[in-house]
Structures are given as structure tokens and as C-alpha cells.
Specification:
Mean pLDDT: 82
Order of helices and strands: EEEEEEEEEEEEEE
Strand order of the largest sheet: 1-5-4-7-8
Number of helices: 0
């Protein structure tokens, strides 16, 4: 059963695309409810450079009961999908092509035990927290769209467990 995500957020673009990506997030204990799932546009050919704006998710949503997720409103193109959840190493699935008006279903994101947990706090120049800021960790690999997302809480704090690797970090205020 596919569950409509309880929260979604759009970056760039219009969010008026008719394509969507659907699937399930699982971990060592089974379905993962509440995982932050992101669709990241990856452009055309692998040799094409992706500018910084492309390395941000188009849609971010939370997985529902049973780990189901739905990422609606995508424009036709190629995406990577990532999932993060507290205490589990993030999942990544790349090179998912979607067509307008079509659902790409059955995407399986499998989170693992282990990884490295990064914690931080997002604040403005005066030190005031920036709740709801989406923090993006762009893993430095040959894979396109390898961008993981965490959300800052009311105090501006975030935590995200990622596979071992090198990352570039940025934040997008709410």
C-alpha cells in the first residue's frame, strides 16, 4: 500500500510536474516510518556538470506507516532518491527516470545499521535558531544526486546518520 507523504516541500521548479516516484523505506527492523525522503534532479548525461541549484531536492517528504512514500509533482527527467532517519545509515537509489503523468513505483530504499551521525545547529547571524531549515549533505562520489537531507527542529538542531564518506554541506531555510 502506498501512503501519501504527510509532509512535502519543493525546491526550485514549479512543483507542477505530473510525474511521481513511489516506494518503501526499510531498515534492519522492517519498515521505517517518518524517514525524510528526497528526490534530487540529476540532469542529462553523466558527463554533464550539475550546478549547485541542481544538487538540491525537488521534493522532500516523510514516509508513512509501513514505510511507504510518494514524491509527487516532479517534472519529467532523471532523479536520485535518498532517505534519512535517526540512527540508520541513509539510503540512496540513483538514475530513476520518470515521464510526465507516470508514477515510477516499487522504489526500494534500504537503510542500514552503522554509518556516522553528524549533529549540528542552524542559526542566523544573531544566534537565533532557524527551525525547519533543510540541511543537505552532498556526498562526494561519482554518483549523481547523492544528496542526503535532515530537518532542523524548533531549536535549530539536526542529526543525520550517513554512510562513511566526504560531504559538502548547505542549508535551505524554511
Amino acid at each position: 500500500e502506498q501512503i501519501e507523504a504527510s509532509q512535502d516541500r519543493r525546491y526550485g521548479g514549479t512543483g507542477l510536474g505530473l510525474a511521481r516516484i513511489e516506494g518503501t523505506v526499510t531498515g534492519p527492523g522492517g519498515a521505517v516510518e517518518g524517514a525524510l525522503v528526497s528526490a534530487v534532479p540529476v540532469g542529462g548525461a553523466p558527463s554533464e556538470a550539475i550546478d549547485e541549484a541542481m544538487a538540491r531536492p525537488s521534493v522532500v517528504a516523510r514516509s508513512g506507516a509501513g514505510g511507504g512514500f510518494r514524491l509527487p509533482g516532479l517534472s519529467e527527467g532523471t532523479y536520485a532518491v535518498t532517505a534519512t532517519a535517526p540512527g540508520l545509515a541513509a539510503a540512496f537509489q540513483g538514475e530513476l527516470t520518470v515521464a510526465d503523468g507516470v508514477a515510477r513505483s516499487g522504489v526500494a530504499l534500504r537503510m542500514q545499521s552503522g554509518g556516522v551521525t553528524y549533529r549540528g545547529r542552524i542559526a542566523d547571524k544573531q544566534g537565533q535558531p532557524l527551525p525547519g531549515t533543510m540541511v543537505h549533505a552532498d556526498r562526494q562520489t561519482a554518483s549523481r544526486g547523492d544528496v542526503f537531507t535532515a530537518a532542523a527542529d524548533a531549536s535549530g538542531r539536526y542529526a543525520v546518520t550517513l554512510p562513511v564518506g566526504e560531504y559538502d554541506w548547505n542549508g535551505v531555510p524554511a
